[in-house]
C-alpha cells in the first residue's frame, strides 16, 4: 500500500483558512463532547529554548476515518534565513493504522487552522460590534488572526504593537493589502494599545506576562494564541480573573500557557475557567452574556483541529 506524499505548495494552492472554520468549529464541539483523544509533547532541541521548539500533536475523533500525528517544528534560524519551517502531518487509517498520507505543510496547516480557531472564538465570544482591534506581535499569527477576525467582526482600526518596530511596519504593509478598508498603524506603547481595544489579539513568544488585567476595557474580548506551551505566558492572572475564560480543552490549558502560569502562581484555578469553546458552540455553556463581559479565548491548539485540517486537505486534493 503506497503512502501519498503532498508538498506545501500543493496544500497552499488548495486550502485556505476559510475552508477550515466550520470543520474546526465541529472539532471543538466534538472534543468537548468527549469524542477526541488529543495528545501533546513539546521538545526543545535547540541550544536555548527560545531558539526553537518541536510540537508533536496527536489527534483522533470517534467516527472519523483517519487519525493524525503532527510534527511541527519552529526555529528562529529559519526566520533569519527567510526559509520555511519544517514539519509534516502524518495521516493514518483509523481502521487499520496504515499510513495514508504525509502532508509536508511547512507549518502552513498549523497556521491556518489556528486562524480558523480564532475566527470561531470571535464568532462565539467577541462583542457584536467591533471598531478597534489591537494585535500584540509581528509574526505569523499576528498576520492571520486579524484576517480571521475581520471575517467574523469587520472592524475599522487596527493597532500593532511589537518589540521590533521594523517588523511591526512590515506586518502593517502586509495587512493593508488584505484589509484595505481598515486604518492600520503601529503603536510604541503596549498599555495604551491594549486599553483602546474592543478585541485584543496576543500572538507573541512571551515567556512572562505582557498584558496586565487592569488594562482591559469593559466589554473587551481577547484571543490569546501565543502562549502554547508550559514556558510561555502573555496574560497575567488579573486578566484571567477579570474575564470569562474559555479554553480549547481544560487539561491542555491546565498544563500550558497563561492558565498554567496563573495556576502555578496560586492566583488561579482550573475551576475558575468558564468553559471550553466547544461547550459554547454546542450550547452547553453560555459565552458572552452581558455588554460589560470581558471574554478570553485561550487557545493552545488541539490535535483534533489538525485532524480536520488534514481531512479537508485530502478532500480538496482528491
From TrEMBL:
Any GO BP: carboxylic acid metabolic process
Gene Ontology molecular function terms on file: oxidoreductase activity
Protein name: Cyclodeaminase
Residues annotated as transmembrane: none
Gene3D superfamilies assigned to the protein according to its UniProt record, in alphabetical order: NAD(P)-binding Rossmann-like Domain, ornithine cyclodeaminase, domain 1
Pfam families: OCD_Mu_crystall
Cellular-component GO terms for this entry: cytoplasm
Family under the similarity heading: Belongs to the ornithine cyclodeaminase/mu-crystallin family.
UniProt xrefs under InterPro entries: NAD(P)-bd_dom_sf, ODC_Mu_crystall, ODC_N
